[in-house]
Design goal:
Isoprenoid_synthase_dom_sf, mainly alpha
């Protein structure tokens, strides 16, 4: 059984490495005891996201429903022949990750099956389920059963997840609209998206980043550098987006080059060593 457990965790690690260089870098800077649990969480959320965002030639609703039922079955039986779900259930059961977080996440994935305009309530509901609860799952791992710490850092973890998701929405506004028929931001019409719309969204994102930072500096030592690196990477991406006019955001996908990511890793490590974060 140990070999099976280890193999399924390796599958989640491979998924993370293939899909996200930034999160892989961030995870590598966590204490080694956190590596496998965070890979497992990423593998789970990535596969669910792939179902609704990528598999357009298949019955996505049916695939997601099957994934959802297999998730709950894995959690109850504490085993799955799906390596991603087996790795995830181990982490959920070991760290007592709240079932409500998983329910909210899967609900947001279901929301992505439908082309809909997001009002403020739906937007907040989607952000919570697609991003904030992922931060809360990771926080459960980092706190290692310290519930008072979890309660203190919960709001900041939600803000960090929200900031990441909203930056993704802003960066991907063109592809979300053209490929999937979605515009997540309330009251925003893609066809008339302008600098004023962009600046209003950016003010909201900046507030999330500001709220998140206080939580990052209060994280346990083994988690702080990795989370800070993800934070600083997304902040760099956000600053690049802020410098561009709305028309350019609609025309191209902004990214942070790999050499810049490595430079951010080095500068973050130096700040961490000198205890300035």
């Amino acid at each position: 059984m140990t070999l099976f457990d280890h193999t399924t965790l390796e599958c989640s690690k491979l998924i993370t490495q293939r899909y996200s260089t930034s999160f892989t870098l961030g995870i590598k800077t966590l204490h080694p005891r956190f590596h496998d649990p965070i890979y497992a969480i990423y593998g789970f959320v990535r596969f669910a996201d792939e179902i609704v965002d990528t598999f357009h030639t298949h019955d996505r609703a049916s695939l997601l429903e099957r994934f959802k039922q297999e998730t709950y079955q894995a959690l109850e039986e504490k085993i799955s022949l799906n390596p991603v779900l087996h790795a995830f259930q181990m982490v959920v059961n070991q760290y007592h990750i709240d079932r409500e977080f998983i329910n909210a996440f899967l609900h947001s994935m279901e929301m992505d099956l439908f082309d809909q305009k997001y009002n403020c309530d739906l937007y907040e509901e989607y952000i919570y389920g697609s991003a904030e609860v992922v931060g809360l799952m990771c926080l459960r791992v980092f706190c290692e059963g310290d519930n008072p710490m979890f309660d203190r850092l919960k709001a900041a973890a939600c803000s960090l997840g929200a900031a990441f998701q909203k930056v993704n929405f802003l960066r991907d506004i063109r592809s979300d609209y053209q490929d999937r028929g979605r515009v997540y931001f309330p009251k925003v019409d893609f066809r008339s998206f302008c600098n004023k719309d962009k600046e209003e969204i950016e003010r909201d994102i900046q507030q999330d980043f500001d709220n998140a930072y206080a939580g990052i500096v209060a994280l346990p030592k083994g988690a702080k550098l990795g989370v800070y690196l993800a934070y600083i990477y997304y902040l760099k991406l956000f600053k690049k987006i802020k410098q561009l006019p709305a028309a350019q955001i609609l025309a191209e996908r902004v990214r942070v080059p790999d050499n810049t990511k490595l430079a951010l890793l080095l500068s973050s490590y130096i700040r961490y060593q000198f205890k300035t974060i």
